[in-house]
UniProtKB/TrEMBL annotation:
The lineage of its organism: Bacteria, Bacillati, Bacillota, Clostridia, Lachnospirales. Residues 78-441 form the Amidohydrolase-related domain. This is Amidohydrolase family protein. It comes from Candidatus Limivivens merdigallinarum. Its cofactor is Zn(2+). Keywords: Hydrolase, Metal-binding, Zinc. One of its GO terms (molecular function) is zinc ion binding. The keyword Metal-binding applies. Gene3D superfamilies: Metal-dependent hydrolases, Urease, subunit C, domain 1. InterPro entries: Amidohydro-rel (IPR006680), Metal-dep_hydrolase_composite (IPR011059), Metal_Hydrolase (IPR032466), Metallo-dep_hydrolases (IPR051607). PANTHER family: GUANINE DEAMINASE. The keyword Zinc applies. GO terms for cellular component: cytosol. Pfam families: Amidohydro_1. Coiled coil: none annotated.
Length: 444
């Protein structure tokens, strides 16, 4: 690579295709996590991609890479892409509305009627086109997405997500009890038959998108449905996503619905859908018992911490530092439309803010999250559900986003970590000027 080549490739003007097969470098101020406590900064550094895989970060271009294409993003920040461990695609249109309700009333009066609209494939296509475009324009490069119970709509969502180039797990939702007729599968048999039909149509069909089993939450699924989903899970080797211990009334309801279970977590665990050989994400985990914490640790169940949603639905404040200290894998989720922003960057600030409130008002033994810890959860922590994702350490998938802060004029110079922090708290999609997923440039 010659320097003149690097300078002729100005980010945001020309861009490049980021050919997945050949090596290239991005140049800029690079920040990435190596662990919850290690946020590494390399000013004016090079992050190198070969065949979609990160080859590491260097202050100078190493000899063996001289001559490769280099995109010089100059003063901009380059960070790993965000992982959204928990988002509901059908809820995207009404995010930021009806924020005065708690979970169960919100589900019944707002969410279930809205999700029922996705039985109409034309509506689903229109709505999911908007969702997919917005995901493409944001900083998320990996996502775990809930669809609805409808097979056709969920396939449309998967087709549209595939076109974005973003890595995603997408789930057809299972729900055969405790919701109105307009949004309830007729029986466990029909729920399983539709799920099988959906899996037959989607397993192995996409490059970036994979199916994930998605029992909505225990109140929506009969025991028989859970039992039979576990059979499908083994047959198709599927991961699982669901909700756990989000809201106090919900937890009480699960106690009444499943008196024989050892607790809410056990309503999944007793069917083998709670970690171990079954990669699992449980959203929220605001009120876990000691027993549940121990099982989640042992079985490495991922927590999708959704701070903004937990605030919007008045759910509570999850003890995230405890989970990190226990070694439970934790990532961040937007939980749109429980949460109002689809940006995981926003969740970093909210995770920190909520942890401060918990520390001040609830439990002085758990210190607030640091920026390094919250950034880790948004990138490497959640990314681990997808494999080696969410860092610029060698061997990780080359997922990068490039952020400019030129719209924040300053009377003095900030160090890179303060610049990142300000982008987290004040930035939006307009600050995003480059995005790569597995080494391929995503057109913004
Ligand atoms: N629990 C069951 N369904 C949902 C949902 O759609 N959103 C949230 N936040 N919690 C749920
Ligand atoms: Fe949710």
């Amino acid at each position: 690579m010659s320097d003149s080549h690097a300078q002729s490739q100005h980010a945001g003007t020309k861009g490049h295709e980021g050919q997945a097969d050949s090596a290239f470098a991005l140049k800029g101020t690079i920040l990435y996590s190596e662990s919850p406590h290690q946020l590494t900064v390399v000013k004016d550094g090079y992050v190198i991609c070969r065949q979609g895989i990160c080859q590491g970060v260097y202050p100078c271009l190493p000899k063996q890479y001289q001559g490769i294409l280099c995109v010089d993003y100059q003063d901009a920040l380059i960070i790993p892409g965000m992982t959204d461990l928990h988002i509901h695609a059908p809820q995207f249109p009404y995010r930021g509305t009806s924020m005065d309700l708690e979970l169960l009333e919100w589900l019944n009066t707002v969410t279930f009627p809205q999700e029922a609209k996705y039985r109409d494939a034309d509506y689903a296509r229109r709505a999911y086109q908007i969702f997919a475009q917005e995901m493409k324009k944001g900083a998320t490069t990996s996502a775990c997405i809930f669809g609805t119970m409808h097979v056709e709509a969920t396939e449309i969502l998967m087709d549209l997500m595939e076109e974005t180039g973003i890595r995603a797990y997408v789930g057809k939702v299972n729900m055969d009890r405790n919701s109105p007729d307009i949004l309830r599968e007729e029986s466990w048999e029909s729920s399983i038959a539709h799920t099988r039909q959906w899996l037959e149509g989607t397993v192995g069909r996409y490059r970036h998108v994979k199916p994930i089993l998605t029992p909505r939450f225990t109140p929506s699924c009969t025991d028989k449905l859970m039992e039979q989903l576990a059979v499908l899970r083994k047959e198709y080797h599927l991961p699982v996503q669901s909700h756990l211990s989000e809201n106090l009334s919900e937890i009480q309801w699960v106690r009444e619905l499943c008196p024989d279970a050892e607790g809410y977590g056990d309503t999944y665990d007793r069917y083998g859908m709670f970690g171990g050989s079954c990669p699992t994400i449980m959203a929220h985990c605001v009120y876990l018992t000691e027993k549940e914490i121990a099982r989640m640790k042992e079985q490495q169940v991922f927590v999708a911490h959704c701070p903004e949603s937990n605030m919007d639905l008045s759910s509570g404040i999850a003890p995230v530092r405890r989970y990190l200290e226990e070694g439970i894998p934790v990532g961040l989720g937007t939980d749109v439309a429980g949460g109002h922003h689809s940006s995981v960057l926003h969740q970093i600030g909210d995770a920190i803010g909520m942890s401060k409130l918990r520390w001040r008002l609830v439990d002085q033994s758990l210190k607030p999250l640091t920026l390094s810890e919250a950034f880790y959860m948004a990138t490497m922590g959640g990314g681990a559900f997808f494999g080696k994702v969410g860092s610029f350490l060698p061997g990780y998938a080359f997922d990068a986003v490039v952020l400019t802060d030129q719209n924040f004029p300053r009377p003095y110079e900030f160090d890179p970590i303060r610049r990142l922090e300000q982008l987290i708290y004040l930035g939006d999609d307009r600050n995003l000027i480059g995005k790569y997923c597995s080494g391929k440039q995503i057109r913004l």
